[in-house]
Amino acid sequence: MSETRRNWLLSAPGLVLFGVLLFVPLVMTFILSLNSFDFYGGIKPDIGPGNYFAVLGDGYYYTIFGRTFAIALVTTVICVLIGVPVAWFMLKMTPFWRSIMVLVVIGPLLISVVVRTLGWAIILGNKGIVNDALIHLGLIERPIKMMFTSGGIVVALVHVMVPFMVLAVWAALQRADPAAERAAESLGAGTVTIFRRVVVPQALPGILSGSLIVFSMSASAFATPAIIGGRRAKVIATTVYDEFMGTLNWPLGAAIAMLLLVSVVVVMLAWNRLVERRVEKVIG
Amino acid sequence: MAFLELHGLTKRYGTITAVDSMTLNVEKNSFVSLLGPSGCGKTTTLQMVAGFETPTEGRILLNGRDLSAIPARERGLGIVFQSYALFMHMTVAENVAFGLEMRKVGKAERARRVAAALDLVHLSHLADRYPRAMSGGQRQRVALARALVIEPELLLLDEPLSNLDAKLREEMQLELRRIQREAGVTTLMVTHDQSEALAMSDRVVVMERGHLRQEDAPFEVYEQPGSLFVSNFLGKSNVYDARLIAADATGSRLVVAGREIAGPAGVTLPPGDVALVLRPERVEVVAPDAALIEGRVIERIFFGNQWLLRAGTPFGEMLISRRNSGRAEAAVGDRIGLGWEAHHIRVLPREEARA
Ligand SMILES: Nc1ncnc2c1ncn2[C@@H]1O[C@H](COP(=O)(O)OP(=O)(O)OP(=O)(O)O)[C@@H](O)[C@H]1O
Ligand SMILES: [Mg+2]
Predict the structure, then answer these.
(1) Is ipTM > 0.90 here?
(2) Which of residues 125-154 of B touch A (CB under 8 A)?
(3) What dotted CATH number matches B284-339?
């Protein structure tokens, strides 16, 4: 048996699983998105790009797409800003504290997103902890609106996504030479300079892969925007849900879902191309 | 007053004493090696001088200035790390310029000094390369240029050549020594390679389990080791239990394995149990009638420029090293006569055997 044939054979179970679980539903969704729909007759099995024109021709959807990607982008940026220093501090800790920190960072992943987000709903609500505290301190008079806003979604998403960023950056920093920081120190660099000039570049591969994970997961997140954003701060995923479950216009929902998929893939590929060139030159 | 002074320098990690009351003077512009087996505290000593470890006790004086209150980044020392610790995301020139940037040296001046430093290590043609695309020896030179460009008062090298293969290591030994001379910088190097320490240094400091055992010029440490440990660590040694029965300014008498032999002059030890040390290269293969003892060759190893014979003798096993003079050497099983001159024997205090 030739080498290639054996390789194909060995990966066959994986490929079959992949095909059945990912490819088939995707193709079916795509076909669904080409069907048409009317309120009295339901889904009609004709094929045409009508749904796509409907979405792309309607400013309402542009707002939702814009909001979704803005939320994903801001979430990613905040995750980088939090994740890189946290990963660096974790690396500097004694093994005992480091294992505790790993638990603290990974811990949230062990709890359902729904439960965590409901926790945020309690904290961010008009009668939530944050508003109550600020009012009692006399800093504000009326509660700040945080529930059902994009800002609230970002806060809750950051909480969900930060572990992924920390882990990605941590993995990158662990591969770097710890003596490089000492070298910079011996050459006269202070902590901030070391962080900026040595640690961040070392963390770059982790920041890049972490950003891809966080961005794509934030852009397609459902539970968090559904609970925090509700009907008022709608994102693509919740819109798709509403089309399917509310209006029952499955073809339109499928078209929106396909557009979400395509735009996330395009953003990811572009990002990858952009940074890979730079990283490859330097880190190889 | 010496340029760098260590006074009773001690470092304890919990119950482990990594460095134990180390006192050492390093003269300006000299090249000093800290030599010792793994775990003897060499790196720890260097890290304390660099400022990355805080001494438990003792003081470090550089040019009369107490370093203990000065953080690592203000000590202004040039350090070459064992892993080189280059900034992989910067080009060679950017790496070298880093220390100057931190010192706020102007752009033109910076470029001039980076060029000079790269010239010193013969790397001018690779200024725009990234370290990943360089060989071990080239990276080593970059690390050296980066440390030297800030014109440090003191250069610290932690096993700078241990990542290089044997041939390159020998080249770099000479190269490093040349660069050190040209830069005229006082240098403290850590190594566990005795030939490297002997070849490169003005002074060799032999350490064992946190203690300074001997500090001397290379020739002196080799020829006049102060203890069995130093003698065994530097080069090969034949060591036999002996009894000193007489010693004065003109010579001494020793008893080894029931035979009385002549020993060197000037032994200051009191008569009694001693250790007798004889270097393999000081033992001659001689005609049986001129021999002090006889031996039978057990093993013969060829090194190219020399032979190493292992022979069974009345004293015990003896290593004999012979320059390759183009003739076939005694073969395994041959009986040979062995001789040496009395002044080539070293008489040292007995020590407990150490692992
Ligand atoms: N951070 C630390 N915590 C506890 N013990 C340490 C620490 N650093 C070093 N030691 C111990 O101190 C002793 C000296 O270590 P050091 O690194 O100075 O040895 P070395 O002479 O450089 O050895 P090598 O040739 O292997 O590099 C060793 O026994 C080591 O285990
Ligand atoms: Mg060491």
Answers:
(1) no
(2) 130, 132-133, 146-147, 150
(3) 2.40.50
